[in-house]
Specification:
The protein has 108 residues and is mainly alpha-helical. Helices cover 81% and strands 0% of the residues.
Length: 108
């Protein structure tokens, strides 16, 4: 297990250089340009994944808003059918958790 952790740490440090206090401003700027280039290339290579993650997050936020409105609105039928606030909160949690599970395990 310790070998696994040390390998992960060494890989992480190899991919992302850290600035050191003793380095000159020019060296720090060069590392900053290197990081910017890698961010740009990551964006070009992985934009479909970022778009899908944005879609999933937006869908989740919209569904949470709809569920809260359905469960807590004074005009909602759910409020009349389930007068116990604790039960409504539990049902709300189940609905939100189910949405998260479905989005995480979706084909996208």
């Amino acid at each position: 297990m310790n070998d696994f952790i040390s390998n992960c740490r060494s890989e992480r440090h190899e991919r992302r250089p850290h600035t050191r206090v003793g380095k000159s401003a020019t060296a720090n700027l060069a590392e900053s340009d290197e990081t910017t280039t890698s961010i740009g290339s990551a964006l070009r290579e992985h934009w479909p994944e970022y778009l899908i993650e944005g879609w999933a997050l937006g869908s989740f936020m919209i569904s949470v808003g709809l569920f809260v409105t359905i469960f807590e609105s004074p005009r909602s039928l759910v409020l009349a059918v389930v007068p116990d606030a604790d039960l409504r909160v539990a049902l709300l949690g189940i609905a939100i958790g189910t949405t998260a599970i479905l989005l995480i395990h979706s084909a996208w």
